[in-house]
Amino acid sequence: MDKLIITAAICGAEVTKENNPNVPYTVEEIGREAESAYKAGASIIHLHVREDDGTPTQDKERFRLCIEEIKRRCPDVIIQPSTGGAVGMSDEERLQPVELLPEMATLDCGTLNFGGDEIFVNTENTIKNFGKVMIEKNVKPEIEVFDKGMIDYAIRFAKEGYILEPMHFDFVLGVQMTATARDLAFMVDSIPAGSTWTVAGVGRHEMPMAAMGIAMGGHVRVGFEDNVYLSKGVLAKSNGELVEKVVRIAKELGRDIATPDEAREILSLKKR
Predict the structure, then answer these.
(1) Residues 111-134: what's their mean pLDDT?
(2) Helices (H), the chain
(3) 6-267 has which fold?
(4) What one-character-per-residue DSSP string does 108-173 give?
(5) Whole-number pLDDT of residue 228
(6) DSSP helix/strand/coil, 193
(7) Which residues pair with 171 in a beta bridge?
(8) Does the pTM exceed 0.90?
(9) Pick from 209, 206, 221, 218: nearest CA to 255
């Protein structure tokens, strides 16, 4: 069983300081939260960025500043910008951080009902274009899937040459698809041989999904983007606290934690 790769999704595009005052907005705050997660054991920082007032943005220069701040604090960490952005953003806006040539970036493989009237739109042409750009720039996609159909899209687009194998999947459960052991097992059984995977449980599902992912030999994502509580009714003081909890679970279950360089080897990445 591979060592455990922990991804920290430190702020997302939707959660705010009203949900938890420790959610980072500024460049300094994003650097601080990335460092807290890294020191706790995270080898990947899944990165959205905000304006200082908390407004989500995909601006390339804002990403550059945040990446530089994270790298100053955590020189060897893997930074994984989001190309999901926020509801209503154009494809051109969303692709901006890929121009900075990160090692990884996310690739959403389907349209998502996010809640109420909010829809994250990912047409077939969007997915193909994003995949093509990532191949051209040698950026490994993390395939973000919110239900089984998105796995099928990823497999089809890989066969058509828009995504390179071996693929790395992130199963985000508890949004469009329920978060149960049955669901996670179904998703894992649906991906191609040789693929790697991470699970992210949203809200109260975060730690149960993390424990299942650890036991099943997969990898884990936690962080304020998905959940702001350390336990029921107790707000997490930092992303690092959430990562520390995963590390404790992993140790109880006999999984060692991957360093960033070990994560690169598992995911077939080359450090830039």
Answers:
(1) 93
(2) 27-40, 60-73, 91-95, 124-136, 148-159, 181-190, 206-216, 239-252, 260-267
(3) TIM Barrel (3.20.20)
(4) E-S-EEEETTEEE---HHHHHHHHHHHHHTT-EEEEEESSHHHHHHHHHHHHTTSSPSSPEEEEEE
(5) 98
(6) coil
(7) 145, 199
(8) yes
(9) 218
